[in-house]
Design a protein that fits this description.
This protein has 106 residues and is mainly alpha-helical. It has a domain of 57 residues. 44% of the residues lie in helices and 8% in strands. It has a three-stranded antiparallel beta sheet with strand order 1-2-3, with helices on one face. Helix 2 crosses helix 3. The protein starts with 14 loop residues before the first strand and ends with a helix. The model has no long low-confidence stretch (mean pLDDT 89).
Length: 106
């Protein structure tokens, strides 16, 4: 394997690299750096980084839906995820973790 070859995000032994841009997974699907195979996605979902990404998506979706439906959210949280108060972030993290646990993904 050449340096820089993609081996999947998780479990390199479950992938056969075909270069820096993709790898074939043992589950029979392509794995790309920007579009993971199901095995890597399953591993990724439980990570703290994934929870943070999911929180940002949920926050943005909630704020957009609130605008669309005429619901007024708290002014403090009507901001980009990076600027949301920490207490609000902790609440969203707990909600996302609860959702992942309910779905059996964490």
């Amino acid at each position: 394997m050449a340096e820089g070859d993609w081996e999947g995000k998780y479990n390199p032994s479950d992938h056969r690299t075909v270069g820096p841009h993709r790898a074939w997974s043992n589950s029979g699907e392509w794995c790309y750096p920007d579009m993971l195979c199901s095995g890597c996605r399953d591993e990724w979902v439980g990570t703290d980084g994934a929870i943070e990404v999911l929180c940002e998506v949920m926050h943005d979706a909630y704020e957009a839906a609130a605008v669309k439906t005429g619901w007024e959210t708290q002014e403090r949280s009507r901001a980009a995820w990076a600027d949301v108060p920490e207490a609000n972030k902790e609440t969203m993290r707990a909600a996302v973790v609860a959702l992942l646990e309910r779905l059996g993904l964490r």
